[in-house]
Amino acid sequence: MALPDEAGQLARVSREFSNRGINIQTMCAIGRAAPNVAVVTDQMIETRMALDEMGISYTVNELLTLVMPDRPGSLADFAERLSNAGVNITSIYVLSRYRGDTELAFSVDDMDKARATLNMHESVPP
Predict the structure, then answer these.
(1) 46 and 73 share a domain?
(2) Between the CA of residue 12 and those of 7, 8, 22, 37, 80, what are the distances in Å?
(3) 47 burial via Cβ count (<10 Å: 0-12, 13-18, 19+)
(4) Could you tell me if 118 and 100 are in contact, meaning their C-beta atoms sit under 8 angstroms apart?
(5) What are the pLDDT digits (tens) for 51-86?
(6) Which domain holds residue 68?
(7) Both 80 and 112 in a single domain?
């Protein structure tokens, strides 16, 4: 999402999310001239509604999640597997680090190829 570089913008968005019960799983903000904030939630519909009602422009990307060992080389192995398959990683976020594992959320330019390369299968909610 694009936010003005003004005091209080993050407070405004995060308060609105809180009021709607939207939990931010991770986020990243980059830039000063045209700040962009990447926010990961598991409540896409509610998040989109909140941003629409606040008049904030945004894009939506489907994310995959993966747990890998929290050790040197794990990220390189992961990135090389996708690269060797011709899959470009377009965003990546650390969701958690716990007991020797790191959970990542990431987007790619070819979801089907990424799933096949990483032996991932779409899960169906219960």
Answers:
(1) no
(2) 10, 6, 13, 13, 39
(3) buried
(4) no
(5) 999 999 998 888 899 999 999 999 999 999 999 999
(6) 64-117
(7) yes
Domain count, the chain: 2
Mark out the alpha helices in the chain (DSSP H runs).
9-19, 44-54, 74-84, 111-117
107/60 Cα distance (integer angstroms): 10
Q: What does pTM read for this prediction?
A: 0.73
CA distance 35 to 28: 10
**Whose CA is closest to 104, among 119, 116, 90, 93?**
93
**1 within some domain:** no
The answer to whether residue 89 is domain-embedded is yes
Is residue 97 a part of any domain in this protein?
yes
Note whether residue 113 is domain-resident.
yes
Cα distance between residue 20 and residue 2, in whole Å: 20
